[in-house]
């Protein structure tokens, strides 16, 4: 459009055609915008509504289901909740005047198109969400899912994503303390990159973002606005990929972690100096989001002079400036008397800052371009009152066939030689092999407050250096379980994350989630989503942990093939003293290995079924949330009382993988006997090794604490059984082994052989 499309011009040209369909708006949505404004929108208004009403920004297909999280949150669950759903991130009270904020978000589609920048800017965006709450970011985690390990395109995507996650976080000086990496053909054309950040603050430092106080100034600061990321994630994440890739190809944002590091320190000093009324990050939808959300959350309106926005590209049209998702930008509301102090601080950190507008009493968001009004809208209609759909949902017709094909019917190994071979096969498989090739590219200990990190079950970070107060965080999901039963699958993801935090010795406090699904326009996908959200909300009530916030990512599919429903669940717990945290691998010989929980014949959806037989069908394991609560209390109290030296949850790969990882963590072998377990639980040896029954943990107990520990388990009604003893230390020069027997010897594997199998898989694919 050669002429500037002003509000007056829009009113005078009602029949002028606008490309709303190309921007993702439906006919009825465009008509609704015209009704709200009483005229057609200008090009700039259309840009704002299109990105803010996109699926990624508006949650228009998920809102009706997500309300369950708020409705089902009880007063008891709110006891530690300082800030809940609806803000940049949730905040929980961890005691002694300290608060922690954490959140997980997706950057899936951009990471497929530009793996390095897509992943890097995903980390940058979630860090700024935490920063906007007034918190200092202290750690990051990530949940990554890729296509088949041997697929040619996986070799393109994985190194770029890993370099993006590691490079951005490392440059920010934030430790990456955990997460997960999964390979599965279902994610081939649509990898999942979910990033989590944790931040800490004192209670009095919590800040909420809104534009209040008529006459207060609106200041944009950070990097200049460019053409990268115009419509970026907001458009990309709101449609599926066709077989040839996305039909809309906006430029993926380009990140500069060094600029973000300056922005972090600058923001924290601005908060500390008390010179800002509120700060909002510019993430998805850029200026469209920041201006409309700040104005909508405030008590007045906002006037913005868009032509004063500092640009990297002077050729950008005003609608492009509004849609750009250029990174490392923040927006602040500043009282006029604090402006000089604000500018002095941004100048000190060499962060460019520009006053671009002010808070008004009009109740409207009005934006000008060189004196001409190009936007005049009620801000709530842009930011908070977009369309809400109750999408039709229906249980897919093939669910009965899928669930009627259980892995329990598959042939199982019976001889010691067969069992040994499959233990090694799983240990070196794509999803269970060592992640060191990936995690060694991340700095896990920068800042000096990491008390525990991958490959332990949870990341542990010290918050208060004097008392040792800290937090543990875990991030988990199982798309195969959720595919077999979305409701149970979501609950199993929560239970695993909850259990991982407890194995570290932390009391679980709160939940964040990233719900990754296919197209909401598919009734089968919406059924999966509805089931998963309901299951997760109900489970949170039973466990007593509130959802503090998170993200929904729809349209994760290529053509008509959606990904498995993948609800990624993060749980945060608190430790009174991180010195008492419990690692996942045994460190000393002569300790008693106990299995807590009961093993059932539950092989469907397991890594054994997939890796050995290429099979997916049946029903996922049963979830018993009351048992999970009691088990967590045993683990936390045993950790506090020094009754256990190691604890490792049983999940993917079952007992077999837990024993492998327990031995390899510190090079200490184990002698394990399964006869009594098989007799007690009525199972065969293969089931004992490969079942993925939930609610189970292996622990290493010092011999002198065995009586106290078993008394605690008995008193709380937790099934427990001594199944082995730690034995042999590689560091002492001896040949440590994993030795497994039942009623008779079954097999022995030297740890050197286990380690070789476990560690070679990823380097062989991606290079050393």
From TrEMBL:
Give its localization: Cytoplasm
Q: List residues of the PurM-like C-terminal domain.
A: 214-369, 589-726
Start and end residues of each PurM-like N-terminal domain: 86-201, 456-574
Q: Which reaction does it catalyse?
A: N(2)-formyl-N(1)-(5-phospho-beta-D-ribosyl)glycinamide + L-glutamine + ATP + H2O = 2-formamido-N(1)-(5-O-phospho-beta-D-ribosyl)acetamidine + L-glutamate + ADP + phosphate + H(+)
CDD domains in the record, alphabetically? PurL_repeat1 (cd02203), PurL_repeat2 (cd02204)
Task: Assign the protein's first listed, main location to one coarse class.
Answer: cytoplasm
Q: Describe the family membership recorded for this protein in Swiss-Prot or TrEMBL.
A: Belongs to the FGAMS family.
Q: Kindly provide the name given to this protein in its UniProt entry.
A: Phosphoribosylformylglycinamidine synthase subunit PurL
Q: Which organism is it from?
A: Quadrisphaera granulorum
What is the gene name? purL
